[in-house]
Amino acid sequence: MATKSNDVETSALGLDDIHETLIEIAYKAGDIITGALPATNGAGSKKNSADLVTEYDRAVEKMISTTLAEKYPHYKFHGEETYDPAHPLTDDPTFIVDPIDGTVNFVHSFPCACVSLGFAVKRIPVVGVVFNPFNQTLYSAVRGRGAFMNRTTRLPLKGESLEPLSGLSNALISVEWGSERCGKNWDTKLRTFARLGQTKDNGGAMVRSMRSMGSAALNLCAAAAGTIDLYWEGGCWEWDVCAGWVILTEAGGIIVDGNPGNWQASLEGRRYLAARASPQAIGQKDIVEEFWSHIEGRLEY
Ligand code: IPD
Ligand code: CA
């Protein structure tokens, strides 16, 4: 079926075929990931000891890029482990891939990691496949066609019974520590976390609680499923969010800038605030504005 949305024409791109291919690749990647035996002290550091890469990240990315190059030689590839700052993302149809999102979890055998396979056109995510092989959960979406868990369960999980969003004090939210552990962004995160958790009498939002899944893609999928209400992060990259972005927005969620004021997040913006769906969008904008009002400082990347 042809899909024309207001900003990107996708009918000639074969999105269904790409969706099926990405699902096949995700299962293959899952076998590599679950068959691996990473050592907690054997992972290589990129920027520091919280920013890791293993031989498995590289092997999975190689398998993915080789398979995609054979099947779709005309589309570009943008993967975390082969990213070269001299070749940033363009408007061309591009696969945007994180071979293992949640590498710290993977290294520690904490079962919350996934392969994240996105496809974007004009920097707009249009196909997304996220697979956590540890619990065999597949999330996928094609722009304009809805989002699904394990191919058949439509997201959000509660469907028509989903409750409206009703403010931060009733919300379970996800935040991430990230790997940058000093400076202005670190300070902004810590002060914001404190305010989000604090009682209202003390100027806080008193959120129900905060979670850190250790994977941007799985945070976005949890918001798509409706099992968390909001997800805020600064510092992650387009390969962390591209696939989850389609899954979230197809499930009725929204993704806005992680700094206050901008309702349209940019794929490469490295600052994101995602909110789950809400019936008739009730409370969706309100909760975003409430969250923005509790950010202490600004995220700068
Ligand atoms: C990381 C995860 C984590 C987020 C970091 C990302 P990686 O990706 O998505 O949740 O906090 O910003 O870099 O390193 O596991 O692919
Ligand atoms: Ca990764």
TrEMBL record:
SUPFAM superfamilies: Carbohydrate phosphatase. One of its GO terms (molecular function) is metal ion binding. Keywords: Hydrolase, Magnesium, Metal-binding. Its cofactor is Mg(2+). Mg(2+) binds at residues 80, 98, 100-101, 240. GO terms for biological process: inositol biosynthetic process; phosphatidylinositol phosphate biosynthetic process; signal transduction. It is an enzyme of class 3 (hydrolase). Pathway: Polyol metabolism; myo-inositol biosynthesis; myo-inositol from D-glucose 6-phosphate: step 2/2. It catalyses: a myo-inositol phosphate + H2O = myo-inositol + phosphate. Pfam families: Inositol_P. Its EC number is 3.1.3.25. Belongs to the inositol monophosphatase superfamily. This is Inositol-1-monophosphatase.
